[in-house]
Amino acid sequence: MISILIAPTGLESGLTTISLGLIRALDAQGLKVGFVKPVAPDYAASERSTHLVRSVLHLKTPDPMHLHLVQQRISDGMLDRVLEDVVALHEQVSHDCDVVLIEGLVPDRSEPYTAKLNAEMAKALNADILLVASGLNRTPAQIQAELKLQAGVLGGSRANLLGCIINKAGEAPEHQGIPSGEDIPLAERNNDESCAPLWKLTSPAGPVLGVIPWKSELVSPRMLDVARALHATVLNEGELDTRRVLRIALCARTVSNIVDLLRPGTLLVTPGDRDDVILAAAIAATNGTRLAGLLLTSGLKPGEAIVNLCRAALATGVPVLQTQHDTFTTAQQLTRMDTQVSVDDADRVNNIMASIASHLDMQVLMRQIGQPHASRLSPAAFRHQLVAKARAANLRIVLPEGEEPRTIQAAAICQERGIARCVLLGDPTRIHQIAAASEIQLPEGLQLLDPASVRPQYVAPMVELRKHKQLTEPMALAQLEDNVVLGTMMLAQDDVDGLVSGAIHTTANTIRPALQLIKTAPGAGLVSSVFFMGLPDQVLVYGDCAVNPDPNAEELADIAIQSAESALAMGIPPRIALLSYSTGSSGSGADVEKVRKAAAIVRERRPDLLVDGPLQYDAATTASVARSKAPDSPVAGQATVLIFPDLNTGNTTYKAVQRSANVISIGPMLQGLAKPVNDLSRGALVEDIVYTIALTAIQAQQNKGQ
Fold first, then answer.
1. Structure confidence at residue 381 (pLDDT)
2. Nearest-angstrom CA–CA distance, 409 and 57
3. pTM to 2 decimal places
4. Cα distance between residue 460 and residue 472, in whole Å
5. Distance, CA of 277 to CA of 3 (rounded, Å)
6. What angle do helix axes 114-124 and 79-94 make, rounded to 10 degrees?
7. What is the pLDDT of residue 350?
8. Alpha helices, DSSP H only, in 438-498?
9. Is the dihedral of CA 502, 504, 509, 514 positive or negative?
10. CA torsion, points 92, 97, 103, 104, in degrees to nearest 10?
11. What is the number of other CB atoms lying within 10 angstroms of the CB of residue 388?
12. Which residue from 41, 72, 407, 538 has the fewest beta carbons nearer than 10 Å?
């Protein structure tokens, strides 16, 4: 087990977010990470780092000690006692961990013990030290000097200095708050290229392990946070807790001169009697521009007639706030607004963690810490593995819902990250319009395919495939008007390698054309599905939770074998548990007998697979329960593939686990088709679509290898 103490070199280094980003990055490497903040200044029950680790990452971590009590003990000559307590806190989280991150204290002139205490804690815990420096509006020479000074304070060559991370690199508004429209060009210059010189810094602190550019979107608060900070009155709630402020525009000019500021993410600040600005904002919102919101100053608000004209705009979810202060005072308050992430803003925390993790040199970091332990397949490691395998496959995936905004964004992400070569089916002009309205940058190489231009070439092949059903050319042409059918024909003709649909179509709309045109794989008795459930410590496979209502024993055995093969393809060692309401021979009845027979069929067909059933869920997954209920089972207590007896049980369970336990699920992934077709939930997030595309690419690669 390796311990790493994260120590800042100065104020405003973003220590908490670096800690969270490191947890995400190390977890993606398959390491089990623990976290502890031994001492916290201005201690409260909602101390930020501890609260976020618990609420967002769902890690158990003890409460920090009060800094003023620690100072009192040190002044009384009881440093050893303090360090004993630090070790005790560390031991609470270190069991079964590969790496424990210890968040140090921020140096402060008013707190003379902080830097010394960081050094003492590192020594007491035999921890490596990782320095974090702020690069905001600072030259490489200034950063290098600060790193050298802090390395000396922490013990210089005698300390176990792991390296350094430079956070908030680049130029930004001096106030570090939400940028105005004028500040945007300044902030947009911060990128990997502009930050490249910082990677070459040398210091006694060790190698540079990460350079994270300052980005306005990473400090963008919700409109809810603005309302809280200004104690504003909410006139229209709208999407108050999800819309984010990327920039602030003070509307003192005429409407013609503020049109360029009417962009997604803009907070318009204007006196409440500026009907022209309010109406312009309403028109923009009605046209699909996701403004962050409208902030009316001077205690004024528009008349009823203006409000009535804006009803359609308000219905789009744009929040409207009101403050009693004038515009000048309001602008000052916004400039001074604390942009630290709120403890209840999980989305922003996850975005920050992802950004930090993506800007770390994990190869060097893993070499520095010695790659101490064998890896495990955590949810983050699983997702990382999905992306890596999909990149290696480099296959074409068709997306029939090419004019759907989430699908467009997911395709852009997949193209940019090399996950797959996506083909968006839709009117290219319409796709460009939707992308522009949502500020989605369509990367080079992303194929936009007009269905009308290719539809005729699939008529004859479709007639041939369906000639036993007396399909005629006019009938085929009519069916090909459905983009899902067209995409399925592209897959049937090997013009693409896989298909993903369902963001706006039902499961039946996605599967029916596949069954008609693609058909099942050789040896597959049916089409089934699995979900990959990202529990805190591992990924489990749930099947079948989406397709087959009440499979018989033979069908259940098919589902189990298909699910085991899917697990194996995704790097999960399959240990199959066929679930029931009883374990072993303790129960009887038709439902139990079906599961028992299915387990026997799997053993007969695939003696190479570990399988057991019937097993109750707790006996299948919990070692302590397994020891009492199924002590001789080769699967109980360590099952990775959980097969539900029917769709009612499976679908209910996966949704209960997903929502109640805050578990990320990827799927459903369809199994048993000759070529990969995958369905989406109509509530799918962009991230869900991205990972489903990755799954589809991997399935296609597996098919090619068979």
1. 67
2. 26
3. 0.67
4. 9
5. 55
6. 60
7. 86
8. 451-454, 459-465, 473-479, 483-492
9. negative
10. 80
11. 14
12. 72
| The token pair that represents 287 in the structure block | 């046209």
Angle between helices 79-94 and 67-75 (to 10 degrees): 140
Instruction: Mention every residue, 6+ apart, whose C-beta is less than 8 A from residue 511.
Output: 527, 547, 670, 677, 679
Q: Do the bridges between strand 161-170 and strand 128-136 make them parallel or antiparallel, or are there none, so unpaired?
A: parallel
**CA neighbor of 437 nearest in space, from 225, 659, 289, 639:** 289
Q: Concatenated DSSP letters for 334-389?
A: HHT---SPPTT-HHHHHHHHHHHHHTB-HHHHHHHHT--S-----HHHHHHHHHHH
Q: Which residues contact 451 (CB under 8 A, 6 or more apart)?
A: 425, 426, 480, 483, 486
Which residue do the tokens 């996950």 mark? 419
The DSSP secondary-structure symbol of 666 reads E
d(CA 369, CA 392): 28
The dihedrals phi and psi of 490, each to the nearest 5 degrees, come to -60, -40
Question: How far are the Cα atoms of 196, 248, 434, 487, 700 from residue 264, in angstroms, in the given order?
Answer: 30, 11, 13, 32, 37
The Cα 266–Cα 310 span in angstroms is 18
List the 447-449 sheet strands across, edge first: 447-449, 421-425, 396-399, 498-501, 677-679
Helix axis angle, 405-417 relative to 428-437, nearest 10°?
A: 90
SS (H, E, C) 139-196: CHHHHHHHHHHHHHHCCHHHCCEEEEEEEEEECCCCCCCCCEHHHHHHHHCCCCCCCH
Side chain identity at residue 46, one-letter code: S
Give the residue carrying structure tokens 């904002």: 281
pLDDT at 326: 93
What are the residue ranges in the chain where pLDDT is below 70?
A: 42-46, 108-112, 156-159, 173-190, 371-378, 380-381, 536-537, 587, 705-706
Give the per-residue pLDDT at 176: 53
- 190: number of Cβ within 10 Å: 21
With H, G, I as helix, E, B as strand and everything else as coil, classify residue 46.
Answer: coil
E strand segments, 2-89: 2-8, 33-36, 39-40, 65-66
CA distance 412 to 431: 12
Pairing of strands 528-534, 539-543: antiparallel
Q: How far apart, in whole angstroms, are the C-alpha atoms of residue 649 and residue 549? A: 10
Residue 660 phi/psi, 5-degree rounding, is: -75, -35
Rounded to whole angstroms, the maximal C-alpha distance in the chain is 94
Tell me the one-letter amino acid at 696: T
Residue 373 pLDDT: 39
Q: Per the structure block, which two tokens stand in for 134?
A: 């702020």
Rounded to the nearest angstrom, the gap between the alpha carbon of residue 18 and the centroid of all alpha carbons in its chain is 17
| Residues whose CB falls within 8 Å of the CB of residue 361, separated by 6 or more in sequence, listed in order | 207, 208, 209, 210
In angstroms, the CA 293 to CA 608 distance is: 59
Rounded to 5 degrees, φ, ψ at 390 are -65, -40
Lookup result for tokens 């070499």: 367
Order of strands across the sheet with 528-534?
610-615, 575-579, 641-643, 539-543, 528-534, 664-671
Task: Give me the residues paired with residue 399 across strands.
Answer: 424
CA distance 518 to 497: 12
| Locus of tokens 């104020």 | 11
CB 599 within 8 A of CB 578: yes
